[in-house]
Amino acid sequence: MCGRFALFSTGSQLSQALGLPLQVRQLKPRYNVAPGTFIAVVHRPEGDASLVMEEMWWGFKPYWAGEKAPQPINATVEKVASSNYFRGAFAHHRCLIPADGWYEWLAVGGKKQPYFLCREDREPVWLAGIWTERADGTRGCAIITEPARGAAKEIHSRMPLALDAGSLGPWLDPHLTDREALRQIVRHLDAKLITCWPVSIRVNRPGNDEDAGLINPA
């Protein structure tokens, strides 16, 4: 799964890393982004040729869902295109969630040791996501996950779907709505580029969001 991540790159750094025209906004560095908060999301508004970065609630619950409907933070790559809950967003409301890395926990001696995972070159990663209009008028999103690969596989069975540079444009293309067409074009980030290390258990507290030391090796 993907339940925590860090984002401390500036808006201009993200725009440069994206390699696509982007209306950037000021971002506050966050080192322990947790579900149930507003997070930075890149998407292409309907009828607009340019990309925008805006805040969306990390929790996916469409406006048409019932009061007791779930509010998942993740959607699996295996079911996101076919599930009644997600498939409309997969076809028409795909987005990218920028991150400098994410956290996973490994069971060690009866305890869970947190790890920070990121690119070896420390460039931002672009996590594939979907978004929806919520009943309260805001927008909510979910991060797509896939089976863990490379170094991430040693920590957890799942990982966020991080896309390679050539897939960012097609993923955000509103004209690409067919699952098979996307499958032929979109590629995940090369697993060889992913590295990880153990970090402090201070990350276990969601409130610790401004502590830059959370990503330091334990």
UniProtKB/TrEMBL annotation:
Keywords assigned by UniProt, alphabetized: Covalent protein-DNA linkage, DNA damage, DNA-binding, Hydrolase, Lyase, Protease
Family the entry assigns: Belongs to the SOS response-associated peptidase family.
Top-level taxon in the UniProt lineage: Bacteria
Official protein name in the record: Abasic site processing protein
Species whose genome carries this gene: Halomonas korlensis
EC number(s) on file: 3.4.-.-
Matches recorded under SUPFAM superfamilies: BB1717-like
GO molecular function, one term: lyase activity
Residue spans crossing the bilayer: none
InterPro entries xref list: SRAP, SRAP-like
Any one GO biological process: proteolysis
Residues spanning the signal sequence: none
